[in-house]
Structure prediction request, 453 residues.
Amino acid sequence: MNLSYMRKPLPSKAKLFFALVLCSSFPTFSQSLTLSPYSRFALGDLQQPLFVRGSGMGQAVQAVRSRSNLNPANPASYSALGLTTFEAGLHSSFTTLKTNADIQTYRNSGFNYVALGFPISEKKKIGGSVGLMPFSSVGYKITEERDYGFAKAFNVFEGGGGLSKLYLGFGKDFWKRLSIGVQGSYIFGNMTNVRNMTFSDPTLHNLKDDRSKQVSGFFGEAGFQFHFDIKDSSKVDILTGKRKLKHLYNMCIGGTSNMQTNLNGTQQVEVFSYQFFGGTLITDTVLYQPAAKGNIVYPMGFSGGMVFQEFDQWSIVADVGFRQWKNFTNFGNIENLANQLRFSLGYSYIPDFSAEKKKHYMRTVEYRAGLRYDQGFLSLNSTRVGEKAISIGLGLPFILQKQLSDKEAARIQLSLEFVNRGTTKQNLISENYFRFLFGITFNDKWFQQRKIY
Prediction:
């Protein structure tokens, strides 16, 4: 088998930058984010609903709350927003695909996401977010040679496209410790899958199976976060003999869930035989469906996680997720997928959040690391296709305006992941790839009432 690819208003420069990013992001989501033969199945490679910061912590984000960072994986987190937050990200990956007989390497890069979060009422702890991000991606090209005795045949399987996700979510605090969030998403995009079988004997008829889907639909999800503070005042002041507060810890437990959803779509199918006579000559149309309507059943899933942290210094995060892929159907076809489990663990650390950047800049950087294991939903040749990954990341702060007093006015987000998926056993493919993610986070105080003196 051979593998091949295919609190002042923002300054005018910052506003111009935001506008350019927003305008440029829409066409770039049509680019494929993957170069994986496994994206041939189901909806392709499902992209997790998170940004660069979460990627650096092993994708463990269900219980993460922040005043100045967005967490679209759990809409309950929007209630913690204290600043209007703009986030955008890019990705670049280096992929190695390996079989028992061949090794190929590829590079891929493109735009990843753009989102805006905003506190609606800090007093009532209500926040919201809107954004555009990838939902799934298809990108592969596989060449296979077979000998039928009377002639050799070359099969080329090729696919591309993917689905995007436009979301709008809101979160609110109840009873100070409980946050509830809801989020609606519009899924849309195109996917193509083509199989081209050509024979070495030019007198034989070749076969091409070309299928393209246009998919769209809405689905909703709900989330919660239960958060509370833990005060550590066990130390005694030597001079006064009184106990004093040493640390302030916080714990949060969170989760999200979505019900089984039908996504609408149309599928065009064209299967025909052809020969080469100075060009491609179609000899017979086996099947032609110009626009057959159908639906895709996106299965139920839920995720949960926990965070234990010391404010403005370190945090330990852990997540577990489940999706019932056995109920997935694709235009009425059952693909016999397996239910999926995911586990992730992450850590972040800021040596000294309040340090002066000019003198001790590296002490204000957020350092991140994470591990994750994804059981996957594919079982091919009696072998489960799982995924293991390790990641590291950095959050580099910088001040956008000298007038801003908030030390987190803006940050550059960096993440590097090493991912292994699949195996060369049972004639399967092993994938190893380095994925570099670059993001930027801007914070500002919008929608303030002007004071009249």
Q: What stands out?
A: The mean pLDDT is 84. The helical segments are 12-28, 52-56, 357-360. The first helix runs from residue 12 to 28.
